[in-house]
Amino acid sequence: MLYILRELEVENQIPVLPVYVDSPMAIDAFEIFRNHREEHDLEMTELEKAGGNPLYSKRVYFARTVEDSKAINEHRFPSIIISANGMATGGRILHHLVQRLPDERNSVIFVGFQAAGTRGRLLSEGARQVRIFGVDYPVRAAIYVIDSFSAHGDYSEILRWLRGFKQAPRKTFLVHGEPKAAEAMKGHIQATFQTWQVEVPTYLQSYEI
What we know:
globular, two-stranded parallel ribbon, 2 domains
């Protein structure tokens, strides 16, 4: 997201606003990625050679402490906040939603998958009210969803990875994804590797390994 925001600033597609990154884990991951340039792709390397850091918008701030996070909500000027948890089920994002969902001047953008039953899914599907910390808040902010940022491989990419196995695993468990998607993935694997045993475990089902 920081990379995209910087690109939009450079292209004058958005105004230069304060950008707050408010997620301790995301900040830690950012610093690891920033410090290991040998892992960057060619485009990143070329941008770095040209000067500057492609991951820094012009006014980016990192909220490392709880106090830093709380201070964001004291500001009353236009800004951008990048915060986790991605499905709005917990973490610092909840405090930002409490502050911003009731105000029609704000926008909330989800850039990751929202699982069924999560607060993020409810918001992305048009809920006009959500409960946070036991209180119901009206949703007057504009809600947007951008699906193209998903970091998950699709079924063809997963099959390509599985083809690298030298021998079939004794059993393949599909434990991530919604039920219909998991069953569809099971079908793809069985159609590609006819001898593979594939299982989609149910809730509380156990296996001895």
